[in-house]
Fold this sequence. Notes:
The protein has one domain (5-75). Helix content is 67%, strand content 0%. It has four helices and no strands. It has helices at residues 5-16, 26-40, 46-50, 57-75. The two termini are 18 Å apart. The model has no long low-confidence stretch (mean pLDDT 83).
Amino acid sequence: MGESLEDFLLNLHRLSKYCQLQDETKEQYRQELVRDAFVNYLPFIRMRLLEKDELSLDDAFTLATTLEKAQKNADG
């Protein structure tokens, strides 16, 4: 992955604005779409993210960055 998790998440947010969603639930569904795309793109931590019963986009990002840092430290 060439971009940081933060940049990747920002790009997902930008792309989600092009989704055709109903007005009443647009923001909720947009957040869920971004969260799902974010989790699916991260195979090295996907299982850890999916262990959660409920996972918000903010929680997914926080956990992903924590796990990414841990993996980098372990790799040396």
